[in-house]
Every structure is written in C-alpha cells, then in structure tokens.
Amino acid sequence: EGFLQDDSLLTGFDDMVTFENKTICLISRYPHWTAFRRFLSHLHVLSGSSSDLPLERYISHLLLTVPVPKPGGQCVIVPLQTLNEPMALAMPPTKDLPLVDLPFQRLLACLDVPTIVTIVLGFLTLERKVIVMSTHPSLVLDGCELLRSLLFPFELCAPYVPRLTQPFMSCLDFPGAIFVGIHDDGCDDGLAAIVKKNLPEDSAIVDLDTGEIECSGDTYEILKQCWKIIPSDPRSNLVSEIESLCRDAGIVPGQEPIDSLVDSAFDASLPKVLVEDFDDQGYRAQEPLDDRALRDAFLRFFTSILGGYERFLVVPDIDYLISGNDWFDSQKFLAAAPKDHAPYLSSFVDTQLFQSFIQRRTEASDVHCMLFDECLAEFHSNLSSVPFGRLGSDLNPTAALSGGENQRPFDLLVDQCATELQYDPKDFME
Asked: What is the distance between the alpha carbons of residues 427 and 310, in angstroms, rounded to a whole number?
C-alpha cells in the first residue's frame, strides 16, 4: 500500500518511453528478391544512423512513389545513399524467361552440377518429394526458387512451401509430390531434426550446407536410378554446358564458400567499401556467371527430348468436356520417341507438371508455351549448324572472337525467339 500511495513513484503513460523490437516485412507479387533485400539492408543501416528522416519516409516513398516496372519496359532505379548500388527494379518481356532476381552462383556454391541436374530432372520434373535444408535462412528460399526456375516452361504443380514451419509440417505426409524448404536451427526438437529422424516416405533431403542428398531407403540406389533414367546424351550436354559456364566464371560447383554469398541484412552496420573489382593478384576479376545461359541450357534439354510433341496433341471438343489427360496421345508419342528417351518420357508425360503444360498449351494462348514451341522449332531446325550455348563457341571460335565487350560470344536458343530487351539491367548497377 505504501508503494501505491506514493504518487511520485507512478509514471503516466504519456511520460513513458518504451523500446520495442520492430519487424519490417516487404510483401509483393513480384519476386524482386535481391532488390528488396537491398532496400531492407538500406533501412537497417539507417536505423542505426543519425538520419534526419524517419524510416517511414523511405518506406512511403517506395510504396507510394516508385512505379511498378512494365514487362520489357525501362528499369526503375531507386537510389540508396547508404549503399554503393541502387535498387533496380526491372521486368523481362512477357515473351521471355520469367523473372528470377537471384544469382545462380548461390546455388552452385552449394551443389555440384550433377546434383543440380539430378534434383531438377530426376526429382522435381518427375514429381518426387524434395526437402531443401540449410542453417542459413535466406539460402533455403534462394535454393528453392532457383531450382524451381529451371523447370521452365513447366510450372510446379506439387505443393510448394519454400519456408516450411512446424505448425504446417503435416503437409509432408501428403500423398504425391511436394517441394519444401526447411531452416535447420540446430535444435534437437526443431523441425529439421524431426524431419531427419522421421524422413517421409519416398522423399529426399537436399542439404545445401554439405551438398549431399539423403533419401528414404537406399540413397545410393535411388540416386543411381534417378540419374540413369535421364536421357544420357542430352544429360551429358547439359552437364558439360553448365561446367563450362562455371569455369568461365571461376566457380568450382559445390565447393565455393557459402557464408560470403548469404545476404547480410541483419549484420550490416556500415556501407560496403567502394573498391575496384580486382582479384588478389591485381588482375580484373572474371566475368560473373551467365545466369541466362544456364537457364537456356535447361531449356535446350527439354526441347531436345520433346521434339515433335505438338503432333500428338488432341484437339478437344467445342465444350472442352474431355479432361486434360486426353488432350495428348502419350502412347503414340512414346512409340515415336528414341529408345533411350522412352523410359524418362514415359514417367514425365504422366506427371501433373506435363499435363498442366498441355492444358495451358491447349486451352489458352499461353505466351510461355508459345515461346517454348518456337524454341522447339528453332532448336530442331538448327541441328546441322553450330549448336547454341557455351559449347557452341568452342566449335565456332570466329564467333567467340567477334563478341564485343558486353556481348555474349555465343548464341542462346531463347534469344532467337524471345522479345528483345532494349537494355541490360546490369548496366544500372555499375
């Protein structure tokens, strides 16, 4: 009672100053991951500085003033005075590869090329359960997004949760395929530890920290089967292409330091030092990994194994009463396919991923399906000429010598059919 009676010990709410942790979450329908992380890093640096403007002013400027970039339009630049590089927002043309605002070097630092090919073509494409794990929270989402982007022109139909939390772990028991990412927090009772102890049936865990895959059952035999079912010649060309791109960029797949590639938004206290891009010996560093060429390599794999598929499309009736499964004559397609492609294609055409592609191809004028069909025709009409991609430059050294400073010394398949972009977003980052 004595404490309450002493009014001098009581403080009114208007006179109190409280300090609380705040979480700022930037939400958008557009996957500008790198740009948004740069903006959040900018806010984090400002929060510890003596800026005269409140954080709300920068946030309102982004939300109310900065326009959404148009597909194929000009790049929108947002200066960030605390960082050396601005936030650049750009959208590719509608008839082009979808936006992936993440560097593939991050994925290749964790996994070697055969492992990436096995995950994309042996697991995701054939709709198996895939669980991606890492002790780095941002790396989980990046790995999932980058792997998913390599499925183009196909779209993942399985449940996709790039950051799975414990309240929703029951989705791991869903029948059929699933693609999730889990942050390994190191706790014995954490979600990652629980999943490792009770690995769901027919699933595979991809550890981005170690680069290893663990399967339910005999891991060696499962990985061997998934590797061998992929058509050998297109698979070898794909692996050689990606390894050549990595050598050009000075990357050793699966053996690069991960820590330097993880975003450091919450560790940032000072802007990065503005330095020239030179290596330890004083020579200018190698060119970065050609992400577009890497995505084009996977696109060429799909065009090489699906040649002539359009001849086996079945035109639906006027009321679209037949199901999407009946819009493609898979039996005749498999009978006409090369023998070494048939085992893979027989599993592939039965997936929801392929059936949804056929449905989009039949029901609507999907621009990505149109792009794939044009790439398919271009690829098979160019078989007698110099092949597309990085390996094509080895067979045509004249073209490699004629490439300009900012010009790719080889041709990509997607560039022959996609809408031409009038600018390079990387030019705004220098």
From this structure: 39
